[in-house]
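Write out structure tokens for Putative NAD(P)H nitroreductase.
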Amino acid sequence: MKFLRGPGPRQEEVDQMLQAAMSAPDHGALRPWRFQLIRGEAIGRLADVAIDAVKRSGDKRMTPEKEKSVREWMAGVPLFVALAQKIAHDNTKIPEQEQLLATGAAVMNILNAAHMMGYGAFWSTGLGTYVEEVQEALGFDPLDYRFLGYLAIGTPACAVPAVQRPDYREFTSEWTGVPA
């Protein structure tokens, strides 16, 4: 649900969403997920930082029209949650891919909680996610964190259309252990 508006979740609801993240499966209990809440006037500052950094990165897609559209969209979203995975440099037991999966599960729990509370929410890898300057501005040093984008959370601005999903059988088989 990309088209969001206010009101956003109350602080008690944000607390519940973030607490839901703590229930994610997490081998070794490393809790590698890290979140930065961005709301109010900070959203405009994020827009400035991200758009300017994307332009400096040489990305030609940030045209004046795109910039205007991004700024207008961001101004309507009441809450962004910046997402990162803390890299456990000193851990030799839990593979980094499992830490990344745990972080993804924590983020999915936030999304599920937001949707269960009636909010619209989605995970975006726009807004300069792959530009280190943006990551650093959010306090996620690239040497210690893998920046994963943002959740945008608010009230759906329109009816949520039903999405046609593929049949799970197209992606599933059964292994029997018997050689073919």
